[in-house]
Amino acid sequence: MRLESDDPFICLAHRGASGYEPENTLRSFSKALELGARWVEFDLRIVEDELVVFHDRTLSRRAGVIGVVEKQKLSALRTLDVGKGERIPFFSEVLSLIKGHARAQVELKGPGTGEKTAHYLNNLISMGWAPDTFLVSSFDHEEILEFIKHAPTIPVALLLYGYPLHTIPMAQAIQAYSVHLHLDTVTPKRVATLQEAGFKVFVYTVNEPSDIAAMRGIGVDGVFSDFPDRVISRS
Ligand code: G3P
Ligand code: MG
Predict the structure, then answer these.
(1) What is the largest CA-CA distance in the chain?
(2) Does the beta carbon of 224 lie inside 6 Å of ligand 1?
(3) Is residue 159 within 6 Å of ligand 1 at its C-beta?
(4) Is the distance from the beta carbon of residue 41 to the nearest atom of ligand 1 less than 6 Å?
(5) What is the pTM assigned to this prediction?
(6) 105 CA to middle of ligand 1, Å?
(7) What count of Cα atoms within 13 Å lies in the side-chain half-sphere of residue 144?
(8) Ligand 1 centroid distance, CA of 41 (Å)
(9) Which of 6, 72, 86, 183 could form a disulfide bond with 77, CB atoms 3.0-4.6 angstroms apart?
(10) Most informative mutation of 159, 203, 206 for ligand 1 (most atoms within 8 A of CB)
């Protein structure tokens, strides 16, 4: 089992290899592993007290039906085709698939995911999983605070859309391992400032080869990409 890569530039397979397979499905995560990804990113929501892997608040884009994900019955949700016959996976199914092959960058999307995910991962750690198998983030910083309260030993990231003036104090306040920036907000100065303050910098979502090369050039620590093979060095 080898989670490290020879290339220090990290590729986080965004929703799996979602440029090739339906996002956030077992098929997409299998493809990411096949392409050599050592990190996979995915999004968590709670349906009927179970953690499921799904990005959107509603079902229309992925399943072609009307409805808010969290309001569905799990039995009905699991019958939906979200592309190529794939089903919405449980968190547990994704972790079983990637165990020993890739780390999990878990993004908390829905209400209540902070506390629930913390308890879920604490249980895995008590069964022998290494805490650094996981890196947990959320745009909802209150969910991250809830997560930290209940799982203080598991690494977390500060996930941002913009670049607030108080970015460094925020990252320090949650003792972030990394800060995740949108591609549009990346500047060499911001990257250098964050790295000097002790944080890794990962940038989302970087698909164009010229952008991937630019991020390498600036010296960011890694990128999220729907096309892991465009990032992963085969040399
Ligand atoms: O966590 C990085 C990235 O996934 C955040 O945006 O909307 O793709 O979940 P989104
Ligand atoms: Mg995400």
Answers:
(1) 49
(2) yes
(3) yes
(4) yes
(5) 0.97
(6) 10
(7) 22
(8) 8
(9) 72
(10) 159
Environment class of 119 (CB within 10 Å of its CB; exposed 0-12, middle 13-18, buried 19+)? exposed
Q: ∠ CA 34-109-192 to the nearest 5 degrees?
A: 75
Which ligand is closest to the CA of 138, given by its number? 1
Per-domain residue ranges of the chain:
10-232
Given phi > 0 = left and psi -120 to 50 = alpha, else beta, which region is 175?
left
The one-digit pLDDT tens for each residue of the chain (235 residues) are 456 666 799 999 999 999 999 999 999 999 999 999 999 999 999 999 999 999 999 999 999 999 999 999 999 999 999 999 999 999 999 999 999 999 999 999 989 999 999 999 999 999 999 999 999 999 999 999 999 999 999 999 999 999 999 999 999 999 999 999 999 999 999 999 999 999 999 999 999 999 999 999 999 999 999 999 999 975 4
> Which class in CATH covers the domain with range 10-232?
alpha beta
Distance from Cα 144 to the centre of ligand 2, integer Å: 14
